[in-house]
Design brief:
342 residues, Jelly Rolls, six-stranded antiparallel β-sheet, 8 helices, 21 strands, oxidoreductase, Cupin_2, GDO-like, dioxygenase
Length: 342
Amino acid sequence: MAILTEVKTEVASQQLTADGKTKEQQTNELLSQLQSTNTLPLWAQMSKLNPPAPNPTCIPHIWKYDEIKPYLLRAGELITEKQAERRVLMLVNPARDAPYTTDTVYAGLQLVMPNETAPAHRHTAFAMRFIIEGNGGFTAVHGRRIKMNRGDVILTPTWNWHDHGKDGSGPMIWLDGLDLPNFRHFPVHFVEHYDKPRYPAEDVDTDNSPIVFPWSKMQARLDAEEGDWVTKPYLKGDGSEVSKILGGSAERLNAGTSSPEIRETASSVYHIVEGSGHSVIDGKIFKWKKGDTFCIPAWNKYQHFASDESTAYLYRFDDKPMLRALGFLRTEGVDVETLVSE
């Protein structure tokens, strides 16, 4: 019966119309003519534009700090701060071009050498910076000069003047997290450069600044909680997210234990603060240690495993605030009927 139906359909498509053309020929002619009207048939791309589940372009990937750091330091020798403005190695996803670390989040490793100044500018993009290594570095954010200490998270809110500098010897390296991919979709980004290298600023107490989250405080919060896996968000003093687009958190994973298995629409970037272990992302194993950074695109199932040697601490930033505001945040296993909107 099925074979007979296919035959009838094929015959019908080959039947000639009054002008001597088959239906298939007329359809091809229609599609060709549509090009001149700048329209396209939705029915030909329905499954592509309305996928049954998230289908990110970016793929899971890990950037090994020990492999990247020598190139970053070499750039510090060859490229001056005046040439670069910001001396950064972007963490580019293998499946896309810059600025995509994931489809919605950008990450990069930034370097400032001794007695340098990364000149003052401001931009629409929001930034949060995790300090990886070095001493004597600072960032000045809209009049507030903040000392950089390893493990601290420092915010650069939208349209705040900011510059970076380094006193003393040795390099200063940190992980930048920005919402730059959004501006590929929304062409509304602005940048303005200050007329002097540094914007006027005064030293502030990092322990009491609303844009600084010292690692010592975050680690104390993590260690105060019971359980093998603990996660704590970075929040403003009023309990709100650090920005409307990007959010951050830190995790503690006891030696020899694992985190829950999670699948969510949020995409994230993880940095290993301390310890070693591996993550299983979309069925693949990614081994990591202190200093490494890896990404998890949307709807890739993942789980973290700490090695038996020591407790692991992980820093994470993601797009949860943006997805939550848009109504796009979803975790596998949720009752889908709770997602029905009015």
